[in-house]
Amino acid sequence: MATLILVRHGRSTANTSGLLAGRTPGVALDERGAAQAAALPARLAGIPLAAALSSPLQRCRETLQPLLDARPELPLHIEERVNECDYGDWSGRKLAELNDEPLMEVVQAHASAAAFPGGESMRAMQTRAVDAVRDWNARIEAEHGEDAVYALCSHGDVIKSLVADALGLHLDLFQRIHVDPCSLTVIRYTRLRPFLVRLGDTGDLAALAPRETPGAGGTAEVGGGAGAP
Question: pTM score > 0.85 for this model?
């Protein structure tokens, strides 16, 4: 099946202000985030992308824009199911204040039981994101073949929940996963199981380019090294 490159959006004004942005409109990339986004085309150079998907929020679309400018032929699809978690009444509040809320301990240690007041549960967030990826895997493979690679720009909690699903981890353990702003996480999906190829990578991804199969004249799977899918 397809290989998915998960892009966390670049650093935002909410990140630098210590706010839980959620789905609050008007949250843009800050200066560093814009620079991170500008570096994305070079980081993905040499990797053929079948499509790009994005959360509908501004900071994700801004992160992908330099890549889209560099590849005008690359189609962009806005996917509501990879939107940020709906934090409800918590949206826009300072994280320092939220640390004193009893629910925050549940969010950190027992995420599968956490539901945000006026928002959604973390279980619902993971379910919709996993459903979206499964649907797009099938679509990308049907249209571009099983070696196809596509990119999806989303948010920290969403990406961590997708990684947990790929690793077979319970959602209660997903806070053990960390992805930096504008980091790249790569999951190679196969018929029987997914493989986590990169996690929170902020460096060179040249090794992810499809390799020629010796004597076959074609391309091998994405990745490399012992144990690669």
Answer: yes
